[in-house]
Sequence to fold (475 residues):
Amino acid sequence: MSERPRTLGQLRESGYKSQSVKAEMRRNLLAKLRSGEPLFPGILGYEETVIPQIQNAILSRHDMLFLGLRGQGKTRMLRMLSQFLDEAMPIVAGSEINDDPFHPISKYARDHVLSRGDDCPIEWVGREARYHEKLATPDVTIADLIGEVDLIKHAEGKHLSNEDVMHYGLIPRSNRGIFCMNELPDLSPKIQVGLFNVLEERDVQIRGFPIRLNLDLQMVFSANPEDYTNRGRIVTPLKDRIGSVVQTHYPLTRELGIEITEANAWRDRDGEVEVRVPGFMKEIIEETSRLARSSGHVNQASGVSVRMSIANYECMLSNAERRGVALGANVVVPRISDLAHLAASSRGKLELNMTEESGEEDRLINRLVEEGVKNIFDLHCKPSQFRNVVEYFDAGNALEVSDGVNTADSLKSMYGIRDFQNQIESLATQLAPDLATGPAAAELYLSTAEFILEGLHCHNRINKQRKTGGALFQL
Fold:
Protein backbone atom coordinates (compact mmCIF):
# COMPACT_ATOMS: atom_id res chain seq x y z
CA MET A 1 0.00 0.00 0.00
CA SER A 2 2.93 2.38 0.76
CA GLU A 3 4.10 2.16 -2.89
CA ARG A 4 0.78 3.31 -4.29
CA PRO A 5 0.19 6.94 -5.38
CA ARG A 6 -0.62 9.22 -2.46
CA THR A 7 -1.71 12.35 -4.31
CA LEU A 8 -3.93 13.09 -7.27
CA GLY A 9 -0.92 14.09 -9.33
CA GLN A 10 0.91 10.84 -8.59
CA LEU A 11 -2.25 8.89 -9.44
CA ARG A 12 -2.53 10.66 -12.79
CA GLU A 13 1.13 10.01 -13.56
CA SER A 14 0.75 6.30 -12.70
CA GLY A 15 -1.64 5.87 -15.63
CA TYR A 16 -4.55 4.77 -13.44
CA LYS A 17 -7.88 4.89 -15.25
CA SER A 18 -11.27 5.03 -13.57
CA GLN A 19 -13.70 2.23 -14.33
CA SER A 20 -17.26 1.52 -13.17
CA VAL A 21 -17.62 -1.15 -10.50
CA LYS A 22 -19.55 -3.42 -12.88
CA ALA A 23 -16.91 -3.08 -15.58
CA GLU A 24 -14.25 -3.79 -12.95
CA MET A 25 -16.04 -6.96 -11.81
CA ARG A 26 -16.49 -8.05 -15.43
CA ARG A 27 -12.78 -7.55 -16.16
CA ASN A 28 -11.68 -9.49 -13.07
CA LEU A 29 -14.14 -12.32 -13.77
CA LEU A 30 -12.81 -12.69 -17.32
CA ALA A 31 -9.25 -12.83 -15.94
CA LYS A 32 -10.24 -15.56 -13.46
CA LEU A 33 -11.97 -17.55 -16.21
CA ARG A 34 -8.86 -17.37 -18.41
CA SER A 35 -6.60 -18.52 -15.59
CA GLY A 36 -8.95 -21.30 -14.46
CA GLU A 37 -9.01 -19.92 -10.90
CA PRO A 38 -11.84 -21.28 -8.70
CA LEU A 39 -14.59 -18.67 -8.54
CA PHE A 40 -16.44 -19.66 -5.37
CA PRO A 41 -14.11 -21.87 -3.30
CA GLY A 42 -15.99 -23.93 -0.72
CA ILE A 43 -19.32 -23.72 -2.58
CA LEU A 44 -20.21 -27.25 -3.69
CA GLY A 45 -22.85 -28.53 -6.11
CA TYR A 46 -23.43 -25.25 -7.97
CA GLU A 47 -20.72 -25.64 -10.61
CA GLU A 48 -23.15 -26.41 -13.45
CA THR A 49 -26.31 -24.72 -12.20
CA VAL A 50 -25.92 -21.58 -10.08
CA ILE A 51 -22.38 -20.36 -10.77
CA PRO A 52 -22.96 -20.05 -14.56
CA GLN A 53 -25.97 -17.83 -13.79
CA ILE A 54 -23.78 -15.58 -11.63
CA GLN A 55 -21.07 -15.45 -14.27
CA ASN A 56 -23.56 -14.41 -16.95
CA ALA A 57 -25.03 -11.73 -14.69
CA ILE A 58 -21.61 -10.22 -13.96
CA LEU A 59 -20.59 -10.37 -17.62
CA SER A 60 -23.90 -8.68 -18.51
CA ARG A 61 -23.26 -6.02 -15.82
CA HIS A 62 -26.59 -6.84 -14.20
CA ASP A 63 -27.83 -6.22 -10.71
CA MET A 64 -28.65 -9.60 -9.17
CA LEU A 65 -31.17 -11.22 -6.88
CA PHE A 66 -30.35 -14.61 -5.34
CA LEU A 67 -33.61 -16.53 -5.03
CA GLY A 68 -33.71 -19.64 -2.84
CA LEU A 69 -34.82 -21.28 0.37
CA ARG A 70 -32.91 -20.92 3.60
CA GLY A 71 -29.62 -22.76 3.95
CA GLN A 72 -28.76 -22.69 0.23
CA GLY A 73 -25.64 -20.53 0.55
CA LYS A 74 -27.15 -17.29 -0.80
CA THR A 75 -25.57 -14.92 1.71
CA ARG A 76 -22.25 -16.76 1.62
CA MET A 77 -22.01 -16.37 -2.15
CA LEU A 78 -23.15 -12.74 -2.03
CA ARG A 79 -20.31 -11.94 0.36
CA MET A 80 -17.87 -13.71 -1.93
CA LEU A 81 -18.71 -11.32 -4.79
CA SER A 82 -16.14 -8.91 -3.37
CA GLN A 83 -13.42 -11.20 -4.79
CA PHE A 84 -14.28 -9.80 -8.23
CA LEU A 85 -13.28 -6.29 -7.13
CA ASP A 86 -9.75 -4.92 -7.47
CA GLU A 87 -7.42 -5.49 -4.54
CA ALA A 88 -7.54 -1.77 -3.71
CA MET A 89 -9.22 1.36 -5.08
CA PRO A 90 -8.14 5.03 -4.81
CA ILE A 91 -10.50 7.57 -3.24
CA VAL A 92 -10.27 11.20 -2.22
CA ALA A 93 -8.83 11.11 1.30
CA GLY A 94 -11.54 11.61 3.92
CA SER A 95 -14.44 10.99 1.53
CA GLU A 96 -17.43 9.27 3.12
CA ILE A 97 -18.73 7.92 -0.18
CA ASN A 98 -15.53 6.65 -1.83
CA ASP A 99 -15.26 9.55 -4.27
CA ASP A 100 -13.32 8.84 -7.46
CA PRO A 101 -10.39 11.34 -7.47
CA PHE A 102 -10.92 11.92 -11.20
CA HIS A 103 -14.73 12.25 -10.98
CA PRO A 104 -15.73 13.38 -7.46
CA ILE A 105 -19.47 13.57 -6.79
CA SER A 106 -19.75 14.85 -3.19
CA LYS A 107 -19.32 18.51 -2.32
CA TYR A 108 -16.55 17.63 0.11
CA ALA A 109 -14.51 15.83 -2.56
CA ARG A 110 -15.19 18.41 -5.28
CA ASP A 111 -14.03 21.23 -3.01
CA HIS A 112 -11.01 19.23 -1.91
CA VAL A 113 -9.88 18.48 -5.47
CA LEU A 114 -10.55 22.06 -6.56
CA SER A 115 -8.56 23.61 -3.71
CA ARG A 116 -5.61 21.18 -3.60
CA GLY A 117 -5.32 20.23 -7.25
CA ASP A 118 -2.63 17.63 -7.92
CA ASP A 119 -1.65 17.78 -4.23
CA CYS A 120 -5.07 16.43 -3.18
CA PRO A 121 -4.32 13.43 -0.90
CA ILE A 122 -5.43 9.97 -1.99
CA GLU A 123 -6.40 6.97 0.16
CA TRP A 124 -6.71 3.33 -0.93
CA VAL A 125 -9.70 1.18 0.05
CA GLY A 126 -9.46 -2.64 0.07
CA ARG A 127 -12.01 -4.85 -1.65
CA GLU A 128 -13.57 -6.13 1.59
CA ALA A 129 -14.37 -2.57 2.69
CA ARG A 130 -16.27 -2.02 -0.55
CA TYR A 131 -18.97 -4.58 0.29
CA HIS A 132 -21.85 -3.41 2.50
CA GLU A 133 -24.79 -5.52 3.59
CA LYS A 134 -28.11 -4.71 5.23
CA LEU A 135 -30.71 -7.18 6.51
CA ALA A 136 -34.15 -6.02 5.41
CA THR A 137 -36.49 -5.57 8.36
CA PRO A 138 -39.79 -3.68 8.61
CA ASP A 139 -38.11 -0.90 10.64
CA VAL A 140 -35.55 -0.01 7.94
CA THR A 141 -36.00 3.62 6.88
CA ILE A 142 -35.03 5.70 3.87
CA ALA A 143 -32.61 7.51 6.18
CA ASP A 144 -30.81 4.22 6.85
CA LEU A 145 -30.40 3.49 3.15
CA ILE A 146 -30.19 6.88 1.42
CA GLY A 147 -29.41 9.46 4.08
CA GLU A 148 -30.80 12.16 6.31
CA VAL A 149 -30.24 15.74 7.40
CA ASP A 150 -27.73 15.79 10.26
CA LEU A 151 -29.30 18.16 12.79
CA ILE A 152 -26.02 18.55 14.68
CA LYS A 153 -24.36 19.91 11.55
CA HIS A 154 -27.39 22.13 11.03
CA ALA A 155 -27.11 23.41 14.60
CA GLU A 156 -23.49 24.32 13.90
CA GLY A 157 -24.76 26.88 11.40
CA LYS A 158 -24.95 25.05 8.09
CA HIS A 159 -28.01 25.67 5.97
CA LEU A 160 -30.48 22.84 5.46
CA SER A 161 -30.09 22.95 1.70
CA ASN A 162 -26.31 22.78 1.96
CA GLU A 163 -24.96 19.38 0.97
CA ASP A 164 -22.50 19.51 3.88
CA VAL A 165 -25.39 19.09 6.32
CA MET A 166 -26.24 15.65 4.99
CA HIS A 167 -25.54 12.36 6.74
CA TYR A 168 -25.17 9.64 4.11
CA GLY A 169 -26.91 6.27 4.38
CA LEU A 170 -25.55 2.84 3.49
CA ILE A 171 -26.21 3.08 -0.25
CA PRO A 172 -24.18 6.27 -0.87
CA ARG A 173 -21.45 4.89 1.42
CA SER A 174 -21.32 1.84 -0.87
CA ASN A 175 -20.49 4.03 -3.88
CA ARG A 176 -18.01 2.29 -6.23
CA GLY A 177 -18.69 -0.98 -4.45
CA ILE A 178 -21.32 -3.65 -3.80
CA PHE A 179 -24.46 -3.05 -1.77
CA CYS A 180 -26.41 -6.13 -0.63
CA MET A 181 -29.96 -6.13 0.71
CA ASN A 182 -30.70 -9.48 2.35
CA GLU A 183 -34.32 -10.75 2.43
CA LEU A 184 -35.58 -7.99 0.16
CA PRO A 185 -39.32 -8.87 0.51
CA ASP A 186 -39.22 -7.91 4.20
CA LEU A 187 -38.69 -4.27 3.24
CA SER A 188 -41.85 -2.20 3.42
CA PRO A 189 -43.29 -1.26 0.00
CA LYS A 190 -42.50 2.40 0.66
CA ILE A 191 -38.80 1.62 1.06
CA GLN A 192 -38.83 -0.65 -1.98
CA VAL A 193 -40.19 2.25 -4.00
CA GLY A 194 -37.27 4.30 -2.69
CA LEU A 195 -34.87 1.90 -4.38
CA PHE A 196 -36.33 2.57 -7.84
CA ASN A 197 -34.20 5.59 -8.55
CA VAL A 198 -31.05 3.88 -7.37
CA LEU A 199 -31.61 0.88 -9.64
CA GLU A 200 -32.82 2.81 -12.68
CA GLU A 201 -31.04 6.17 -12.58
CA ARG A 202 -28.11 5.31 -10.28
CA ASP A 203 -28.58 8.43 -8.21
CA VAL A 204 -30.10 9.41 -4.88
CA GLN A 205 -31.98 12.47 -3.68
CA ILE A 206 -32.02 13.36 0.00
CA ARG A 207 -34.96 14.99 1.79
CA GLY A 208 -36.33 16.56 -1.36
CA PHE A 209 -33.44 19.02 -1.66
CA PRO A 210 -31.89 19.41 -5.13
CA ILE A 211 -28.90 17.24 -4.21
CA ARG A 212 -28.18 14.41 -6.61
CA LEU A 213 -25.41 11.88 -6.23
CA ASN A 214 -24.65 9.95 -9.41
CA LEU A 215 -23.66 6.69 -7.73
CA ASP A 216 -21.64 3.81 -9.19
CA LEU A 217 -23.05 0.64 -7.60
CA GLN A 218 -23.41 -3.10 -7.99
CA MET A 219 -26.73 -3.88 -6.28
CA VAL A 220 -27.42 -7.43 -5.11
CA PHE A 221 -30.34 -8.91 -3.17
CA SER A 222 -31.58 -12.18 -1.67
CA ALA A 223 -35.15 -13.44 -1.30
CA ASN A 224 -37.23 -16.51 -0.50
CA PRO A 225 -39.18 -17.91 -3.50
CA GLU A 226 -42.49 -17.85 -1.64
CA ASP A 227 -42.15 -14.16 -0.85
CA TYR A 228 -40.88 -13.34 -4.32
CA THR A 229 -43.41 -15.18 -6.46
CA ASN A 230 -46.58 -16.02 -4.55
CA ARG A 231 -47.41 -13.42 -1.97
CA GLY A 232 -46.26 -10.52 -4.10
CA ARG A 233 -44.21 -8.92 -1.35
CA ILE A 234 -41.85 -7.31 -3.84
CA VAL A 235 -43.43 -4.49 -5.79
CA THR A 236 -43.49 -5.30 -9.50
CA PRO A 237 -41.54 -2.29 -10.85
CA LEU A 238 -38.64 -3.12 -8.52
CA LYS A 239 -38.58 -6.74 -9.74
CA ASP A 240 -38.52 -5.42 -13.30
CA ARG A 241 -35.39 -3.37 -12.63
CA ILE A 242 -33.29 -6.27 -11.29
CA GLY A 243 -31.24 -7.58 -14.20
CA SER A 244 -30.76 -11.27 -13.29
CA VAL A 245 -32.49 -13.57 -10.80
CA VAL A 246 -30.15 -16.39 -9.77
CA GLN A 247 -32.03 -19.51 -8.61
CA THR A 248 -30.28 -21.59 -5.92
CA HIS A 249 -31.19 -25.11 -4.79
CA TYR A 250 -30.49 -27.84 -2.24
CA PRO A 251 -27.95 -30.60 -3.03
CA LEU A 252 -29.17 -32.61 -6.01
CA THR A 253 -27.74 -35.92 -4.80
CA ARG A 254 -27.20 -37.63 -1.46
CA GLU A 255 -23.47 -37.88 -2.15
CA LEU A 256 -23.21 -34.16 -2.75
CA GLY A 257 -25.14 -33.44 0.44
CA ILE A 258 -22.68 -35.58 2.41
CA GLU A 259 -19.76 -33.74 0.83
CA ILE A 260 -21.25 -30.37 1.81
CA THR A 261 -21.95 -31.56 5.36
CA GLU A 262 -18.42 -32.87 5.84
CA ALA A 263 -16.96 -29.64 4.47
CA ASN A 264 -18.92 -27.49 6.94
CA ALA A 265 -19.34 -29.63 10.08
CA TRP A 266 -16.90 -29.49 13.00
CA ARG A 267 -15.29 -32.89 12.65
CA ASP A 268 -11.75 -32.43 13.94
CA ARG A 269 -12.47 -32.58 17.66
CA ASP A 270 -9.95 -31.45 20.25
CA GLY A 271 -10.71 -34.22 22.76
CA GLU A 272 -8.89 -37.44 23.55
CA VAL A 273 -11.48 -39.65 21.83
CA GLU A 274 -11.21 -40.08 18.05
CA VAL A 275 -14.54 -40.39 16.26
CA ARG A 276 -14.51 -42.32 12.97
CA VAL A 277 -17.69 -42.20 10.88
CA PRO A 278 -18.62 -45.02 8.44
CA GLY A 279 -20.27 -44.11 5.17
CA PHE A 280 -23.69 -45.58 6.00
CA MET A 281 -24.04 -43.30 9.05
CA LYS A 282 -23.25 -40.27 6.89
CA GLU A 283 -25.87 -41.45 4.40
CA ILE A 284 -28.51 -41.76 7.13
CA ILE A 285 -27.87 -38.18 8.32
CA GLU A 286 -28.23 -36.79 4.81
CA GLU A 287 -31.21 -39.01 3.94
CA THR A 288 -33.08 -37.70 6.98
CA SER A 289 -32.81 -34.13 5.67
CA ARG A 290 -33.77 -35.21 2.15
CA LEU A 291 -36.87 -36.95 3.48
CA ALA A 292 -37.82 -33.82 5.44
CA ARG A 293 -37.66 -31.83 2.18
CA SER A 294 -40.31 -34.06 0.66
CA SER A 295 -42.48 -34.68 3.72
CA GLY A 296 -46.07 -33.52 3.57
CA HIS A 297 -45.88 -32.69 7.29
CA VAL A 298 -43.13 -30.11 6.73
CA ASN A 299 -43.73 -26.61 5.41
CA GLN A 300 -41.83 -26.81 2.13
CA ALA A 301 -42.25 -23.10 1.44
CA SER A 302 -39.94 -22.53 4.41
CA GLY A 303 -37.54 -25.27 3.37
CA VAL A 304 -35.25 -27.58 5.31
CA SER A 305 -31.85 -26.02 5.64
CA VAL A 306 -28.56 -27.74 4.85
CA ARG A 307 -27.72 -26.66 8.39
CA MET A 308 -29.98 -29.48 9.60
CA SER A 309 -27.59 -32.09 8.18
CA ILE A 310 -24.59 -30.22 9.55
CA ALA A 311 -26.05 -29.85 13.05
CA ASN A 312 -27.24 -33.47 13.11
CA TYR A 313 -23.82 -34.70 11.99
CA GLU A 314 -22.13 -32.71 14.76
CA CYS A 315 -24.64 -33.92 17.35
CA MET A 316 -24.05 -37.54 16.31
CA LEU A 317 -20.29 -37.05 16.65
CA SER A 318 -20.73 -35.46 20.06
CA ASN A 319 -22.88 -38.28 21.43
CA ALA A 320 -20.36 -40.86 20.19
CA GLU A 321 -17.56 -38.81 21.74
CA ARG A 322 -19.44 -38.54 25.04
CA ARG A 323 -19.99 -42.31 25.05
CA GLY A 324 -16.31 -42.93 24.34
CA VAL A 325 -15.22 -40.71 27.22
CA ALA A 326 -17.62 -42.45 29.63
CA LEU A 327 -16.37 -45.92 28.62
CA GLY A 328 -12.70 -44.93 28.46
CA ALA A 329 -12.35 -45.68 24.74
CA ASN A 330 -9.72 -44.10 22.48
CA VAL A 331 -11.62 -44.61 19.20
CA VAL A 332 -15.40 -44.69 18.72
CA VAL A 333 -17.70 -45.17 15.76
CA PRO A 334 -21.20 -43.60 15.76
CA ARG A 335 -24.12 -46.04 15.99
CA ILE A 336 -27.84 -45.96 15.31
CA SER A 337 -28.46 -45.41 19.02
CA ASP A 338 -26.58 -42.10 18.76
CA LEU A 339 -29.29 -40.85 16.41
CA ALA A 340 -31.83 -40.88 19.23
CA HIS A 341 -30.47 -37.47 20.24
CA LEU A 342 -30.97 -35.73 16.89
CA ALA A 343 -34.21 -34.04 17.93
CA ALA A 344 -32.22 -31.35 19.74
CA SER A 345 -30.16 -30.48 16.65
CA SER A 346 -33.14 -30.70 14.26
CA ARG A 347 -35.58 -28.49 16.15
CA GLY A 348 -36.00 -25.18 14.40
CA LYS A 349 -34.49 -26.49 11.17
CA LEU A 350 -37.95 -27.40 9.87
CA GLU A 351 -41.45 -25.99 10.29
CA LEU A 352 -44.53 -28.19 10.54
CA ASN A 353 -47.77 -27.65 8.66
CA MET A 354 -50.73 -26.64 10.81
CA THR A 355 -49.95 -28.30 14.12
CA GLU A 356 -49.94 -27.05 17.68
CA GLU A 357 -49.57 -30.38 19.48
CA SER A 358 -46.74 -30.45 21.99
CA GLY A 359 -43.96 -32.83 20.98
CA GLU A 360 -45.23 -33.33 17.43
CA GLU A 361 -42.01 -31.92 15.97
CA ASP A 362 -39.87 -34.42 17.89
CA ARG A 363 -42.10 -37.32 16.86
CA LEU A 364 -41.79 -36.30 13.22
CA ILE A 365 -38.00 -36.05 13.51
CA ASN A 366 -37.83 -39.57 14.98
CA ARG A 367 -40.02 -40.90 12.17
CA LEU A 368 -37.80 -39.22 9.57
CA VAL A 369 -34.70 -40.77 11.13
CA GLU A 370 -36.31 -44.23 11.09
CA GLU A 371 -37.34 -43.79 7.47
CA GLY A 372 -33.83 -42.65 6.65
CA VAL A 373 -32.36 -45.77 8.27
CA LYS A 374 -34.80 -47.95 6.29
CA ASN A 375 -33.88 -46.32 2.97
CA ILE A 376 -30.14 -46.68 3.55
CA PHE A 377 -30.59 -50.25 4.80
CA ASP A 378 -32.48 -51.08 1.60
CA LEU A 379 -29.66 -49.49 -0.37
CA HIS A 380 -27.12 -51.97 0.97
CA CYS A 381 -29.07 -55.01 2.26
CA LYS A 382 -32.24 -57.08 2.08
CA PRO A 383 -34.20 -58.22 5.14
CA SER A 384 -34.18 -61.78 3.76
CA GLN A 385 -30.41 -61.89 4.26
CA PHE A 386 -30.92 -61.97 8.02
CA ARG A 387 -33.48 -64.76 8.54
CA ASN A 388 -31.21 -66.18 11.23
CA VAL A 389 -31.52 -62.95 13.23
CA VAL A 390 -35.30 -62.94 12.95
CA GLU A 391 -35.39 -66.61 14.01
CA TYR A 392 -33.34 -65.72 17.09
CA PHE A 393 -36.03 -63.30 18.24
CA ASP A 394 -38.84 -65.62 17.12
CA ALA A 395 -37.45 -68.09 19.67
CA GLY A 396 -38.26 -65.60 22.42
CA ASN A 397 -34.81 -64.08 22.85
CA ALA A 398 -34.14 -60.40 23.44
CA LEU A 399 -31.12 -58.20 22.85
CA GLU A 400 -30.29 -54.87 24.49
CA VAL A 401 -28.01 -52.16 23.15
CA SER A 402 -26.85 -49.47 25.55
CA ASP A 403 -24.43 -46.58 25.84
CA GLY A 404 -23.34 -47.93 29.19
CA VAL A 405 -22.00 -51.28 27.94
CA ASN A 406 -18.52 -51.49 26.47
CA THR A 407 -17.97 -52.66 22.90
CA ALA A 408 -16.54 -56.09 23.72
CA ASP A 409 -19.50 -57.07 25.93
CA SER A 410 -22.02 -55.73 23.43
CA LEU A 411 -20.44 -57.70 20.58
CA LYS A 412 -20.35 -60.84 22.72
CA SER A 413 -24.13 -60.70 23.10
CA MET A 414 -24.56 -60.02 19.36
CA TYR A 415 -22.41 -62.98 18.41
CA GLY A 416 -24.75 -65.26 20.35
CA ILE A 417 -26.97 -65.16 17.25
CA ARG A 418 -26.16 -67.96 14.81
CA ASP A 419 -23.82 -66.84 12.02
CA PHE A 420 -24.41 -63.19 12.92
CA GLN A 421 -20.72 -62.51 13.49
CA ASN A 422 -19.82 -63.47 9.92
CA GLN A 423 -22.66 -61.35 8.55
CA ILE A 424 -21.65 -58.33 10.62
CA GLU A 425 -17.99 -58.52 9.68
CA SER A 426 -18.74 -59.13 6.02
CA LEU A 427 -21.14 -56.18 5.77
CA ALA A 428 -18.83 -53.91 7.78
CA THR A 429 -15.94 -54.68 5.44
CA GLN A 430 -18.19 -53.96 2.46
CA LEU A 431 -19.54 -50.67 3.85
CA ALA A 432 -16.40 -49.25 5.48
CA PRO A 433 -13.25 -51.11 4.39
CA ASP A 434 -11.03 -48.32 5.75
CA LEU A 435 -12.37 -48.88 9.29
CA ALA A 436 -12.67 -52.68 9.16
CA THR A 437 -9.03 -53.11 10.08
CA GLY A 438 -7.21 -51.30 12.85
CA PRO A 439 -8.33 -49.85 16.20
CA ALA A 440 -11.85 -48.91 15.00
CA ALA A 441 -12.77 -52.41 13.76
CA ALA A 442 -14.66 -53.59 16.86
CA GLU A 443 -16.54 -50.29 17.07
CA LEU A 444 -17.45 -50.58 13.39
CA TYR A 445 -18.75 -54.13 13.89
CA LEU A 446 -21.04 -52.98 16.71
CA SER A 447 -22.26 -50.01 14.65
CA THR A 448 -22.99 -52.35 11.74
CA ALA A 449 -24.86 -54.76 14.04
CA GLU A 450 -27.11 -51.95 15.27
CA PHE A 451 -27.65 -50.89 11.66
CA ILE A 452 -28.86 -54.40 10.78
CA LEU A 453 -31.12 -54.65 13.82
CA GLU A 454 -32.63 -51.22 13.18
CA GLY A 455 -33.17 -52.09 9.51
CA LEU A 456 -35.05 -55.25 10.47
CA HIS A 457 -37.13 -53.25 12.92
CA CYS A 458 -37.99 -50.69 10.22
CA HIS A 459 -39.20 -53.59 8.06
CA ASN A 460 -41.37 -54.84 10.95
CA ARG A 461 -39.37 -58.08 11.28
CA ILE A 462 -38.50 -57.45 14.94
CA ASN A 463 -39.79 -55.09 17.62
CA LYS A 464 -37.87 -52.34 19.34
CA GLN A 465 -38.49 -50.73 22.68
CA ARG A 466 -36.68 -47.44 23.24
CA LYS A 467 -34.77 -47.03 26.50
CA THR A 468 -32.66 -44.24 27.92
CA GLY A 469 -29.28 -44.49 26.23
CA GLY A 470 -30.22 -47.50 24.11
CA ALA A 471 -32.96 -49.90 23.03
CA LEU A 472 -34.31 -53.41 23.61
CA PHE A 473 -34.91 -55.58 20.53
CA GLN A 474 -37.32 -58.51 20.87
CA LEU A 475 -40.14 -60.35 19.13
Residues 429 and 436 are 5 Å apart (CA to CA). The chain has a mean pLDDT of 90.
